[in-house]
Amino acid sequence: MTLSTLTHKLLWPKSPQACLRTGLWEPGRTGMATLFTGKILIRNNSDGDEVDTEQELSLRLDNRVLLLYFGAGECPQCQTFAPILKDFFVKLTDEFYVNRASQIALVYISQDQTKEQQDSFLRDMPRKWLFLPFQDELKRASLFPSLLCSSQD
């Protein structure tokens, strides 16, 4: 099975009007970091460090292909999909596998029922992933696993 066959949907609003309707884009702002303006993003490391500033957020997300992964550790489809996504991400971002690591960023948006389930899922995922706090209101999606892909181009 490939990444594309497991993805239930691969779409993202391309126009500013569509992004305005989602509430994830503000007029006059550019870059992928604007999707998370005013939100907290957390590094998937043992300390759960927050991305500190808008400048750091911009460095991590702008001028990259941004993947938003809506999933849940207890979901059977997610359990099948997550290892493939993890392998795909690692092979594009780890210089052990490629001469020049891809400019890709991934934000996990938990659909887990509890914070403990979210934490358990993230333990096995790449440290380069970012995620929203468990209680964030952006976290609910109707279908998962879902992978939304966006770039500034």
From TrEMBL:
Pfam families cross-referenced by the UniProt entry: Thioredoxin_8
Might you name a Gene Ontology BP term for this protein?
photoreceptor cell maintenance
Q: Which Gene3D superfamilies match?
A: Glutaredoxin
Start and end residues of each Thioredoxin-like fold domain: 63-139
InterPro entries tied to this protein: RdCVF (IPR029520), Thioredoxin-like_fold (IPR012336), Thioredoxin-like_sf (IPR036249)
- Annotated PANTHER family: NUCLEOREDOXIN-LIKE PROTEIN 1
The entry's protein name is Nucleoredoxin like 1
From which organism does this entry originate? Monodelphis domestica (Gray short-tailed opossum)
